[in-house]
Each structure stands twice: as structure tokens, then as C-alpha cells.
From TrEMBL, chain A:
Organism (species): Elachura formosa
One of the record's GO cellular component terms: nucleus
Pfam families given in the database record: Beta-Casp, IntS11_C, Lactamase_B_6, RMMBL
Species classification: Eukaryota, Metazoa, Chordata, Craniata, Vertebrata
Gene encoding the protein: Ints11
GO molecular function, one term: metal ion binding
InterPro entries in the cross-refs: Beta_Casp, INTS11-like_MBL-fold, IntS11_C, MBL, Metallo-B-lactamas, RibonucZ/Hydroxyglut_hydro, RMMBL
Domain (Beta-Casp) ranges: 247-365
Chain ranges of the Metallo-beta-lactamase domain: 18-235
Alphabetically ordered keywords of this record: Cytoplasm, Hydrolase, Metal-binding, Nucleus, Zinc
GO BP annotations, alphabetical order: snRNA processing
Name recorded for this polypeptide: Integrator complex subunit 11
From TrEMBL, chain B:
Start and end residues of each Beta-Casp domain: 305-433
UniProt record similarity statement: Belongs to the metallo-beta-lactamase superfamily. RNA-metabolizing metallo-beta-lactamase-like family. INTS9 subfamily.
Organism ancestry: Eukaryota, Metazoa, Chordata, Craniata, Vertebrata
Superkingdom of the source species: Eukaryota
Listed Pfam families: Beta-Casp, IntS9_C, Lactamase_B_6
UniProt-listed SUPFAM superfamilies: Metallo-hydrolase/oxidoreductase
Keyword ATP-binding: no
Subcellular location: Cytoplasm; Nucleus
Residue segments, region Disordered: 549-573
Any one of the GO CC terms: INTAC complex
Bilayer-crossing regions: none
Source organism of this protein record: Elachura formosa (spotted wren-babbler)
UniProtKB keywords: Cytoplasm, Nucleus
Protein name: Integrator complex subunit 9
Length: 595, 658
């Protein structure tokens, strides 16, 4: 029984945020987890390097399936490139909301890259459509049989609408991939949840590996205070967001605050995508949190009264306003345009509610840069206030530990984080849970040894017999055939093989000095054995013989010597030990004191 | 295993299965046809109903005239309507471990089971089933509690009295078991015991049994269930449909290889084609409205109504009905319309695709937006201001005994311009109309039942090939009114086993194997031996651990080292501790070779005698005799242990050990 190896290769996720793509080999099945792109690059490096796989032939032949955890582009952005340009025709699994929203974000991303930046050699709209045709949508907790051995199952992950963690299982070996997840419910999503599935390996994101974030309430209060103050003094607030996800949570937050405080300053949400986005939230309301689901008939949380669609011309309007604009890292599009307009005024404020990848304007201003070089060597001086608020729904260190406690994995592998922070978390995990924790770099392969148990069929009769007698040693025979193992009793094994049992029997003559009548000798032997062998069934049969379990003892008179009796002890090979013991015992003679 | 049949209604089943020490209730349908024996509950005082004469026995005695009223030759109970519960005495329902719900119509008795029987288990159902089930219960409770009735009749239930009553009251079963409707707190308590599940989710019960819901294609979230262990598979098919309406299509493939298939919830109108009925529905509706009449559609607040609204959406413009208002009146009308739009994952492919756009999956959203369809919680309030005639009203309850429909029957019943169209198949429309007679209004019967018909069933059974089929007795004979239609019954081989209310069935199956696991270290220690080509054997000595109904074989613990005790050994210390088993032997011993071996080992005086069955080998000096036969060897010797052991080992050399 070879121990099965589990090989992993992070083609992009490694110790890095952005471009998630992980390859798992489990019991002979190859599964790709996520297929993300890197937002910080504009060249080949933005997509994962699939040559590792393609050098061995076609992707479709090598991979059994692809799983996408959620619709963020750093988890699905390379999918059309992968399936249509590199070439993959096998199944791609994702949840229904992801399947609905993913193509829209991909198209949006394609437009920015191709139409605005004029890049060629990029996937087309048709490719996105063709790629989505290969997608199979899965329900939460549904066990999807990819083929006869490989099954996958999705668990709720929070993070964004439709985000899921996936369990990949072959036989009794399993891997859980978390994607991005969030262990605390927020204003519109619930908390991630998994059962005690004890996977051989848990692959967890670790974006906020060391952060233990202050309470959600404090952060929200802080956010509202900053927005309120800026608006009060007549300033403009820019909140760069991705159309789906945090945006909805912050909208709900501001909407309720505006209502409570009776504020009049306008709130805008930039362009088309968002209205559509809110519509998705309405239709997939079952994926939001308990509270929203319960009240949606009376009041749909995603129908906003105070938040209106943004028009480009509004940016120059005088007076205070709050604008949510895409994209979230200020790397292109409307949010960048508005930023350039407002950056010069110190009354204004930009609030970055999420993580920014290196190389983006968002990342630059967050790291304190105040003079930015824009296109055409133009220098933009940033006078507006820059605030960072962690509203990304990722699990923090506490959340990651909590998930490990829930799932009870045998090994943990950390991805999607920064090396230094991950090192700290790795130590903590190894200390607290006594499991191995890995953190591979990009392109590195991790080998995890699993120890799968072997399922066999046991005949019901044998099982019942053995469970009836606690703590006994069952002994049985599995006829080995390459496909299946079966455990049957020895008797049945012989029968099935068409072999007859060969009975080996011993009969020993034991001479005992006893002048009494035979039946009295028998009685003495019986009492003697009865007294000694408390755990055995010793019986005196009417025909004058004695049985100890299945061993038969009979007494006859000696043909010559009246003072000697001959005891015939007879047993089969299966009772060898007891039989041998009894003859030795009887040879020692009978105790004198026996009546 | 055993099946306890608690309901006699084939489409509102309630069965309990005892399967591998687990007690599983399959559905808990509530038979509401009992309410047809009661007078309707009018929302506003109805002079007609209150003036109905009391019923007088043939001998002139009038002691029942307060409880029973007569209307057009039928006798009705003047009391709060009551329902016929599933059997509660057949087994102790507090021992039920889990309840599996297949669709929202089959859970209406849930509060009676979970709140009155000491039930402590878990209920499993899909999210749409629970949400829409809650709406149905809410509507039911609301429509009965809205009309408080002082009187509660019980005298007629007395067995002696019931005997004297006219049919159908005389023949009503288990009237003493009939119960009043539950309350909202009871509904909430019952629903809180439900755990949500998704299609194809594998749910482990006590490690012994796995249950899985599968899409059944009948209603939003409706499911069939697979109940299986490693070696037995029971499929529970309840309310399935192969027609393409709004729900996800039925999953048939997963039903294959069942040992037993329990088949319930077939169509109640096997002779009517649902598509044809929808066409008739539309044309009757259009005709009535064009003539200036009103149309009343008694219906449940969810289910077929979505399909009807979708048909009308496509139909009204072409039929010139654009200006006719459609009203949907139910305390849960709004919720039902809203909920229908958020279960994208449970819908058919076409509707799912719409959600991806994103657009609402059902076109009734547009009907509402364009003000063609309006919904109200009841006839009171806004509705009375907006109400315009002629119009079309969808409202409940289809039994015509409670709910807003009672009001419209009273209001429109006198005019032959109006039409009532029956689409729900659960109640006989003639019985439903009985307390409203004489009636001038037109009555059209277009029952739409999308559940499997007998042709589809026989195709299904051929495809999934269960070893045994179990079904309600109604399905094993033609309908009583059409006894010549032998095509309207289940035809399968071996013939289906049938059940009736309050019966206990022993289901046939044979279980020979069980799955256990061998720990890797134990597996490593096994040495398989090829006995025949393709078959290898290994002896396993192990300790069997059983926990949570899972069995694991582990390496036996190493025997403890005998303590180095200086104490003098007593005889009893030597008693073998446990019987370590010796292997079974097989093979036979060739006498010539055996004798040669004996001689090689120093026995010089070997003598062989032939017997009828074999040989006797004599060792004269040692006074030892060895009987050799085809399948046995018997060594008879003096008490000389070294000699015996030597002979034993020589014999064993010739034999295979197992």
C-alpha cells in the first residue's frame, strides 16, 4: 500500500498578493484552483505561467478540473486566457453568483485594457463567452462528482457575493482551498463556515496574516466620522472601490447614516456596472447575510434612496459630495480621473477601503508618496487627505486560526500573503495545532505525505460476530483482487475458493493414578478443571464425558492396571493451545484434596 | 427494514422508514380534503350561510341541528375546519431521528409532528421548500384565525352518531383524530427545527446512513431523496415532474441501482394534459372577461400560479386583455412574488440565464411594474379602493372553505357572466362548490398537475431499474371511476408492493457486506498470497474499533512483556489467557510422501494399513496411530508432548493454512 503523495505548485499565489493560481495533485487527480491575474503588471507577468503544465502536453489532458473561488480578477482574471488562448476544454466549476458576475468583470477589464490602453494580444469578448460556456455552476454543499473518484464541494466563504471555499476529495484523501474568506459577518455578507471535514491539507489565504483588526464597529464609526467631517467642511470624498463587494457594504453603511443624520450632501455611485451590481445582489439575496435575507421582502437593502448614479460632469460641481468610483486601486478608469481632479484641494479626501497592489496609484499614495508622475511626465501633487481603512473582507490572523480549528486539517499551507507576515502565522499555527504548516514561494512545489486508510468490505456475519465479543481479535481473510478488498471469515474464504477444510485432530492418552470407579474419576477430573478454568465452559455430559469448550475428555479403565485410569483427551488443531495445556495439566495428576 | 405508512393520501404522503437503526420520516403531508365537510368561513357576515337550515335526522330528532347544516342536499359541519393528521399511534413518533421533506406541499403537517409528539430530531429541507412552505402555512393560519368562530362541533364525531349521518360524513375516516389548525408560534417552532440542504448534498446520519436530496422538477426546491448505506440504496420519489416548467429539471440518473424505490406523489389527474389545460384556462379567462364577467382562480400562493402568470404575460396583449386588471390576493402574495425571484439556483436553465443578465427570472416582475398585476394582503384596505371590474382574481384557498376566495364566491356566484376556473388538482371541484349551490356562475375545471403520469412512471422505472417498487395501494389498481383503464396503474416487474394507511411493510432486501477501514500500518503488515490467478489472500489479525457506527481495523496491541516475577509459578498462571485462534487448514496428505517424511525424521517402524476412507499409519514403538483421510487427519498417541508436536508439525507441512 503505497502512501500517496500530494504535490502542490503555486503558479502565482505563493507568497504574494494577486494572481492566485494553485495546482493540486491528489491521488492521481490534478486540479487547478483559481486562475487569477496580477493587477500590478501590464505585460506577460500579469497572467500565471502555464508552461509548467503545457510542457507535458495539453492542459485538458493534464487537468481533471478547474475551480474558481470567487469573481475577483486576481482569482479569475486569467481564465479566458487560460481556456481560450492556451487551450483548456475541461470543466470549470464556480458558484452561481460567480458565474453570473465573473464575465461582466472580465469584459470590463478587457475594455479597459484593450479599448482604452490599446493593447493587443488579449482575450476578446467572444473568448469570454466561450470560456463561460465551459463553466459548471455549483450549489453550496452540493457534492459534485467530477468523475468517478474525484468529488468537490463548496462551502460559504463570505468575502464577496458568491465566494466559496472548496473541498476536493478523492477516496479518503482531501484538500480544502479557502480562496478569500471572512470569518466575521458584515453588513451584507455572512461569515465563512466549514464543517469538521479533517482534510489532509488546508490551503488558506493569508492576506492579513498578522493583522488582528480592531472591532468592525470602531472601523465603521471612524469611517463615518471622516466622511461626515469632510462633507461638513464642504469637501469632496472619493472612495475608490470595485463595483461588487465592499462597495455594497459601504453603500449600506452610508445610506443608513445619511438617513439617521438627515444629511443632504449627494452620494454618487459611478456608472453602469454598479446599478447592475446592485441588481445581482437583489437576485442572489440568498447569498447575503441572515438579516438582509429576512427583511428583503419589506425592504430590499440594495435599493438605495440616497445614492444616485454619477455623471462625469458632477465632478466639477461645487459643494460637498461623496463619490464611489471604480476601480478600487486607482490604477485606471473613473476613479483615477476623479482623483486627478480633486487631488489638489486639501479640503477633499480619498478613502482607500481595500488593499492596493504594488505599482498602482493607490499603493503609491498609501505609502506616503505625495508627488505622482502621471502620463506625459506630468507631476500631480496630492494635497487632499489620504486615508486607509481596511474594509476588505479577508480573514485576519484570528479568523484564520478559527477556520483551522473548525476544519481540523492535518497540514496547513498558506498562500496569498506577504512572506514576512506568513512566517509569523506559520509559527503560530504549528505551535497551537501541532500540524505542519507550509508557505511555498511562486513556482515552488510542496509535497505533503498523506496516510490514507483502506476501505474494505466485511461480510456482515463476521462483523456482527466480532462486534458481539468485545476486545477479541478477529481474524479474517480478504481475498485480494486489484479492484477491491473483502474481509470474510476463514470458513467463507475456503468456501468461496472451493476448498475443503482439512481437520487435524489429536487424541492423547493420559494415565491417571486413581483406583476409584470410572465415573468417580471423571467427577474428580471435572471438579478439578471446573475449579481451575474459571473463564472456560467446562461441562459434564450425561454420557460420562467432559467437555472444555470443544475439547472432549473421556475416561476408560486401564486394560491391565485397575489403579490406573486412561483419560482420552481429544481436540482439533484450532484448540491446539488449550488441548496441549490440558494434557500437561492432567499429567500432573489430580489433587489429593479433591473429594 | 420496515416502512410505517402514516398517511393514506398518495400525494400527501407520510411514511416512516426504519433503516439500519435509524428512524427516518419521509414527508409529513396534511390531508386537507377533510375541510370539504365543513361550511365555508365567510370574511363578512353571509346571510345566505347563516340562514342554512339545521340538519334533521330521519326520525325527526334535531339534537344535531346546531352542528350540522344542510345546503342543496348536502350536509356540512358548522365549525372551524379541521384537518386529517397522519397516523400518530402506529409508532412512537418521539423516536423519529430525522424528517426529510420533499416539497412545500408535503410539509403542512410538520407542526403537528414536531410540536406534539416529543420529537427531538432534525428536519431536512431545501431553502425554497422552507421559505415557500412557511408562506403556505402563514396563509393557512391567517385565513383561519382571521375569522374566529365561536362554535366547535364535536357531537357528530361520536361513532354512534356518525353512523347515522349521510355520506360523505358517514364514511369519513379517523374523525376523532381530526385537528384544528396550528398557530403561528407553532409554525415558527417547527420551522426552526429545519436544517437547510442543497441538491446532491450528502448528509451523514449517525455515521450509519447517508441521505441526499435530488432535484425532482416539480416545484421550487422540490426534491426526491436517496437514503443509502454502503450497500443498500432506497430512493424516495415524491412529487416529481418531467415537464419543463420553472423548476430545475428532475435528476433521474442518481436514482439508478436502487434496491427499493418508494413511489408517491404521481399526478392526481392522469387523464388531463397540463399544456392543454393551460390553453383552456387562457381561452376561458379571455372569453369571460370579453363578455364583461369576472374570473376567479382559487389557488395556492405559490407554484402553478407562477406558470399561469407567465402564460398570461405572453397571452394578454394578443388576446386584447391589456386593460384588464389582474389581482393576486393573499396575506403572502407579495412575499411569494418576491421569493420566486431570488431562487435562481433552483430554477430551470432558461430562467437561470436570465438572472445572469441580470434580469428577474419570472416575467411577473414586469406585470407588476406595468401595473397589470397588483397584489394585496386581503380584500380589506387598499384593495377595496383599487378594485375595478371586470377583473381576474387569484386567491386562496383552493378548497373554497376559507381565505378571500369565500368572499368572491359569495359576491360573484349569482351572476352567470362570471367564471370560476379551478386549476389546483387537490380538491374535487364539485365537492368544493357544494356549499355554494345553487350557483349561477360558470365553473370551468382545468386541473394542472405536472407530476408524473403513468406513462412517464413506467419509462422512469425502465430506466432506473429498481429491484423493488413500493407505492400507495391507489397506484396498483385503475382509478375507481375508470376501472377499465388498466393503463392508469403502475406496471412493473416484480409487481409493486402496495401500502395503505396504518400499515407496516417489511421491505425486501438482503445485506451481506459492510464497509470498514483498515489502518495504513495494519495494511502494510499484511502479506497477500496468490491462491488462484487474480485472487490473493492474507490473514488479518487485528483489533476492531467501532465508534459512531464506523468500523476501523487496527494493529493488535503488542502483548505485554511477562513480568519478571520471582514468585513460584502456580498451575493456574499457565491457563492460556485468550484463545489465540489457529488458522483453518486445507489440502490433503499423500500417504507415501508422508511415510517417507516420517522415516526421514527417524521413525523406523512405520506401518501403513488401508481403510475404507484412507489409510492408517502406525508407529508401533510409540504406540501411535495416525488416521489419514481425504479431509481429516487424526493423531492418537500417548501423552508424549514432544512426539505429538513433532508429528503435528510434520502433518502441517503438507497442508495450506488459512
Amino acid at each position: 500500500f503505497p502512501h500517496v503523495l500530494l504535490v502542490l505548485c503555486c503558479a502565482g499565489a505563493g507568497q504574494d498578493v494577486g494572481r492566485s493560481c494553485i495546482l493540486v495533485s491528489i491521488a492521481g487527480k490534478n486540479v487547478m484552483l483559481d486562475c487569477g491575474m496580477h493587477m500590478g503588471y501590464n505585460d506577460d507577468r500579469r497572467f500565471p505561467d502555464f508552461s509548467y503544465i503545457t510542457q507535458n502536453g495539453r492542459l485538458t489532458d493534464f487537468l481533471d478540473c478547474v475551480i474558481i473561488s470567487h469573481f475577483h480578477l486576481d482569482h479569475c482574471g486569467a481564465l479566458p486566457y487560460f481556456s481560450e488562448m492556451v487551450g483548456y476544454d475541461g470543466p470549470i466549476y464556480m458558484t452561481h453568483p460567480t458565474k453570473a458576475i465573473c464575465p461582466i468583470l472580465l469584459e470590463d477589464y478587457r475594455k479597459i485594457t484593450v479599448d482604452k490602453k490599446g493593447e493587443t494580444n488579449f482575450f476578446t469578448s467572444q473568448m469570454i463567452k466561450d470560456c463561460m460556456k465551459k463553466v459548471v455552476a455549483v450549489h453550496l454543499h452540493q457534492t459534485v462528482q467530477v468523475d468517478e473518484e474525484l468529488e468537490i464541494k463548496a462551502y460559504y466563504a463570505g468575502h464577496v457575493l458568491g465566494a466559496a471555499m472548496f473541498q476536493i476529495k478523492v477516496g479518503c484523501e482531501s484538500v480544502v482551498y479557502t480562496g478569500d474568506y471572512n470569518m466575521t459577518p458584515d453588513r451584507h455578507l455572512g461569515a465563512a463556515w466549514i464543517d469538521k471535514c479533517r482534510p489532509d491539507l488546508l490551503i488558506s489565504e493569508s492576506t492579513y496574516a498578522t493583522t488582528i483588526r480592531d472591532s468592525k464597529r470602531c472601523r465603521e464609526r471612524d469611517f463615518l466620522k471622516k466622511v461626515h467631517e469632510t462633507v461638513e467642511r464642504g469637501g469632496k470624498v472619493l472612495i475608490p472601490v470595485f463595483a461588487l463587494g465592499r462597495a455594497q457594504e459601504l453603500c449600506i453603511l452610508l445610506e443608513t447614516f445619511w438617513e439617521r443624520m438627515n444629511l443632504k450632501a449627494p452620494i454618487y455611485f459611478s456608472t453602469g456596472l454598479t446599478e447592475k451590481a446592485n441588481h445581482y445582489y437583489k437576485l442572489f439575496i440568498t447569498w447575503t447575510n441572515q438579516k438582509i435575507r429576512k427583511t428583503f421582502v419589506q425592504r430590499n437593502m440594495f435599493e438605495f434612496k440616497h445614492i444616485k448614479a454619477f455623471d462625469r460632469a458632477f465632478a466639477d460641481n461645487p459643494g460637498p459630495m461623496v463619490v464611489f468610483a471604480t476601480p478600487g486601486m486607482l490604477h485606471a478608469g473613473q476613479s483615477l480621473q476623479i482623483f486627478r481632479k480633486w487631488a489638489g484641494n486639501e479640503k477633499n479626501m480619498v478613502i482607500m477601503p481595500g488593499y492596493c497592489v504594488q505599482g498602482t496609484v493607490g499603493h503609491k499614495i498609501l505609502s506616503g508618496q505625495r508627488k505622482l508622475e502621471m502620463e506625459g511626465r506630468q507631476i500631480l501633487e496630492v494635497k487632499m487627505q489620504v486615508e486607509y481603512m481596511s474594509f476588505s473582507a479577508h480573514a485576519d490572523a484570528k479568523g484564520i486560526m478559527q477556520l483551522i480549528r473548525q476544519a481540523e486539517p492535518r497540514n496547513v499551507l498558506l498562500v496569498h500573503g506577504e512572506a514576512k507576515k506568513m512566517e509569523f502565522l506559520k509559527q503560530k499555527i504549528e505551535q497551537e495545532f501541532h500540524v505542519s504548516c507550509f508557505m511555498p514561494a511562486n513556482g515552488e512545489t510542496t509535497t505533503v505525505i498523506t496516510n490514507p486508510c483502506i476501505p474494505v468490505d466485511i461480510s456482515l456475519g463476521l462483523l456482527k460476530r466480532e462486534t458481539a465479543i468485545a476486545q477479541r481479535f478477529p481474524r479474517a481473510f480478504p481475498p485480494f483482487s486489484p479492484q477491491s478488498f473483502r474481509l470474510v471469515s476463514p470458513e467463507q474464504a475456503l468456501k468461496e475458493l472451493g476448498l475443503a477444510e482439512h481437520q487435524l485432530r489429536f487424541t492423547c492418552r493420559v494415565h491417571v493414578q486413581d483406583a476409584r470407579k470410572e465415573h468417580e474419576t471423571v467427577l474428580r477430573v471435572y471438579n478439578h478443571l471446573k475449579g481451575l478454568l474459571k473463564d472456560y465452559s467446562v461441562q459434564h455430559l450425561p454420557d460420562g464425558s467432559i467437555t472444555v469448550e470443544s475439547i472432549l475428555i473421556q475416561a476408560t479403565a486401564h486394560s491391565e492396571d485397575q489403579g490406573t485410569k486412561v483419560l482420552l483427551v481429544s481436540w482439533t488443531y484450532q484448540d491446539e493451545e488449550l488441548g496441549s495445556y490440558l494434557t500437561a495439566l492432567l499429567k500432573k495428576g489430580l489433587p489429593q484434596s479433591t473429594p | 427494514f420496515l416502512q410505517y405508512c402514516l398517511s393514506g393520501h398518495p400525494t400527501l404522503p407520510c411514511n416512516v422508514l426504519k433503516f439500519k437503526s435509524t428512524t427516518i420520516m419521509l414527508d409529513c403531508g396534511l390531508d386537507m380534503t377533510s375541510t370539504l365537510n365543513f361550511l365555508p368561513l365567510p370574511l363578512v357576515q353571509s346571510p345566505r350561510l347563516s340562514k342554512l337550515p339545521g340538519w334533521v335526522l330521519k326520525d325527526g330528532s334535531t339534537f344535531l341541528d346546531k352542528e350540522l347544516k344542510e345546503c342543496s342536499g348536502h350536509v356540512f359541519v358548522d365549525s372551524v375546519p379541521e384537518f386529517c393528521l397522519p397516523e400518530t399511534e402506529l409508532l412512537d413518533l418521539s423516536t423519529v431521528d430525522v424528517i426529510l421533506i420533499s416539497n412545500y406541499h408535503c410539509m403542512m403537517a410538520l407542526p403537528y409532528i414536531t410540536e406534539y409528539t416529543g420529537f427531538t430530531g432534525t428536519v431536512y429541507a431545501t431553502e425554497p421548500t422552507v421559505q415557500i412552505g412557511r408562506l403556505l402555512m402563514e396563509e393557512l393560519v391567517n385565513s383561519i384565525e382571521r375569522v374566529p368562530k365561536a362554535q366547535s362541533a364535536s357531537m357528530w364525531k361520536n361513532k354512534e352518531v356518525q353512523r347515522l349521518l349521510p355520506a360523505p360524513l358517514k364514511d369519513a375516516v379517523e374523525v376523532s383524530m381530526w385537528r384544528k389548525c396550528y398557530t403561528m408560534p407553532e409554525v415558527n417552532a417547527a420551522l426552526s427545527k429545519i436544517q437547510l440542504v442543497g441538491y446532491s448534498q450528502k448528509i451523514e446520519l449517525f455515521g450509519a446512513v447517508q441521505v441526499t436530496p435530488l432535484s425532482s422538477g416539480y416545484a421550487l426546491g422540490s426534491s426526491n431523496w436517496i437514503i443509502q448505506s454502503h450497500y443498500e440504496k432506497v430512493s424516495y420519489v415524491s412529487g416529481s415532474s418531467l415537464l419543463t416548467t420553472h423548476p430545475q429539471p428532475m435528476d433521474q440518473a442518481s436514482l439508478k441501482n436502487s434496491d427499493v424505490l418508494i413511489l408517491t406523489g404521481l399526478t392526481q389527474i392522469p387523464t388531463a394534459n397540463p399544456d392543454g389545460m393551460v390553453g383552456e384556462f387562457c381561452s376561458n379567462l379571455a372569453m369571460t372577461v370579453r363578455n364583461g364577467g369576472n374570473v376567479l382562480v382559487p389557488c395556492y400562493p405559490s407554484g402553478v400560479i407562477y406558470d399561469l402568470l407567465e402564460c398570461l404575460y405572453q397571452y394578454i396583449d394578443s388576446a386584447g386583455l391589456s386593460n384588464i386588471p389582474f389581482y393576486f390576493i393573499s396575506p403572502v402574495a407579495n412575499s411569494s412574488l418576491e421569493f420566486s425571484q431570488i431562487f435562481a439556483e433552483w430554477l430551470c436553465h432558461n430562467k437561470q440565464t436570465k438572472v445572469y443578465l441580470p434580469e428577474p427570472p419570472f416575467p411577473h416582475a414586469e406585470l407588476i411594474q406595468t401595473n397589470k398585476l397588483k397584489h394585496y394582503p386581503s380584500i380589506h384596505g387598499d384593495f377595496s379602493n383599487d378594485f375595478k371590474q371586470p377583473c381576474v382574481v387569484f386567491t386562496g384557498h383552493p378548497s373554497l372553505r376559507f381565505g378571500d376566495v369565500v368572499h368572491f364566491m359569495e359576491l360573484w356566484g349569482k351572476s352567470s357572466l362570471n367564471t370560476v376556473i379551478f386549476t389546483e388538482p387537490d380538491f374535487s371541484y364539485l365537492d368544493a362548490l357544494a356549499p355554494y349551490q345553487p350557483l349561477a356562475m360558470k365553473c370551468v375545471y382545468c386541473p394542472i398537475d405536472t407530476r408524473l403520469n403513468f406513462i412517464q412512471v413506467s419509462k422512469l422505472l425502465k430506466e432506473v431499474q429498481p429491484l423493488h417498487v413500493v407505492c400507495p395501494e391507489q397506484y396498483t389498481q385503475p382509478p375507481p371511476t375508470q376501472s377499465h383503464r388498466t393503463d392508469l396503474m403502475i406496471d412493473c416487474q416484480p409487481p409493486a408492493m402496495s401500502y395503505r394507511r396504518a400499515e407496516v411493510l417489511t421491505l425486501p432486501y438482503k445485506r451481506r457486506y459492510e464497509k470498514i477501514e483498515i489502518m495504513p500500518d495494519l495494511a502494510d503488515s499484511l502479506v497477500p498470497l496468490e491462491i488462484k490467478p487474480g485472487i490473493s489472500l492474507a490473514t488479518v489479525s487485528a483489533v476492531l474499533h467501532t465508534k459512531d457506527n464506523k468500523h476501523v481495523l487496527q494493529l493488535p496491541p503488542k502483548p505485554p512483556q511477562p513480568p519478571a516475577s520471582k514468585k513460584r509459578k502456580r498451575v493456574s498462571d499457565d491457563v492460556p489467557e485468550c484463545k489465540s485462534l489457529k488458522p483453518l487448514l486445507s489440502g490433503s496428505i499423500p500417504v507415501d510422501q508422508f511415510v517417507q517424511t516420517l522415516e526421514k525424521h527417524g521413525f523406523s517402524d512405520v506401518k501403513v494399513e488401508d481403510t475404507a476412507k484412507g489409510h492408517i499409519v502406525l508407529l508401533q514403538e510409540a504406540e501411535t496411530l495416525i488416521q489419514l483421510e481425504e479431509d481429516s487427519t487424526h493423531i492418537i498417541c500417548d501423552n508424549d508432548e514432544p512426539l505429538r508436536v513433532k508429528l503435528r508439525d510434520l502433518v502441517l507441512k503438507f497442508l495450506q493454512k488459512f
